């Protein structure tokens, strides 16, 4: 099994690769393929990034088969939400739902409680609908929906992987230190979610 240091390096490398430049802003800038548009969309919004990383950290804390079941659930349900957005089918309170996902997933990370597998999957699945719909609704009209969807699904999976790497890496720091770091990180995510919900950021 990789060491904690190796996992942290992988997580940092993933974040470095995914960080967008200022010129990308959000999506629809320049002449790029549908896949690139889709890939860029999740990593250019702080709300999406925080929620995706929180899903990974949440899964890492639960461990076992939840480690893959929770991220897989999110990506799968998000694809459904994306299809709804592309089709123009409305989902109520999408932006509020995304902000709420950052709050509740951040709290789930901070509290470090053990969730039943089905409950953990249901929690992330609910919020995945909002994120997917937002991605789908903002798809440029001149790109392939399939390529666009594959792009945002891959980016989301990589962000989940970053969260899993962070969670596992931090846990290796020791039982006295790592819970405090995870609580702080999850709490900071929840606070950021409140700021997003209230329009502060």
Task: Describe the model.
The protein has 201 residues and is an all-alpha fold. The chain has one domain. The protein is built from eight helices and no strands. Helix 3 packs antiparallel against helix 4 and helix 3 (46-62) packs across helix 7.
Q: How do the strands and helices of this protein lay out in sequence?
A:
Blueprint: H1 4-18, H2 34-43, H3 46-62, H4 66-87, H5 94-111, H6 117-137, H7 145-171, H8 178-197
**Low-pLDDT ranges:** 1-32
According to DSSP, the number of beta strands is 0
Distance between the termini: 39 Å
Indicate the percent of residues in helices: over 70%
Q: Number of DSSP helices? A: 8
Topology order in helix (H) and strand (E) letters: HHHHHHHH
What general outline do the C-alpha atoms trace? globular
Strand content: under 5%
| SS-based class | mainly alpha
Mean pLDDT: 85
Largest sheet: none
**Over all CA atoms, what is the radius of gyration?**
16 Å
> How many structural domains?
1
Short description:
This protein has 201 residues and is mainly alpha-helical.
List keywords for this structure.
about 200 residues; disordered N terminus; globular; mainly alpha; single chain
């Amino acid at each position: 099994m990789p060491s904690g240091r190796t996992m942290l390096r992988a997580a940092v490398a993933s974040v470095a690769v995914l960080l967008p430049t200022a010129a990308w802003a959000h999506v629809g800038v320049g002449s790029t393929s549908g896949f690139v548009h889709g890939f860029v969309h999740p990593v250019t919004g702080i709300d999406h990034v925080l929620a995706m990383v929180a899903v990974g950290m949440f899964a890492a804390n639960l461990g076992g088969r939840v480690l893959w079941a929770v991220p897989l659930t999110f990506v799968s349900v998000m694809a459904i939400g994306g299809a709804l957005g592309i089709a123009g089918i409305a989902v109520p309170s999408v932006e509020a739902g995304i902000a709420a996902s950052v709050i509740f997933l951040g709290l789930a990370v901070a509290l470090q409680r053990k969730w039943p597998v089905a409950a953990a999957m249901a929690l992330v699945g609910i919020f995945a609908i909002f994120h997917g719909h937002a991605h789908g609704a903002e798809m440029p009209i001149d790109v392939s929906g399939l390529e666009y969807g594959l792009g945002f699904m891959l980016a989301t999976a990589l962000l989940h992987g970053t969260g899993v790497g962070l969670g596992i890496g931090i846990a290796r720091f020791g039982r006295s230190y790592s819970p405090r770091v995870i609580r702080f990180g999850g709490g900071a995510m929840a606070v950021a979610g409140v700021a997003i919900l209230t329009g502060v950021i």
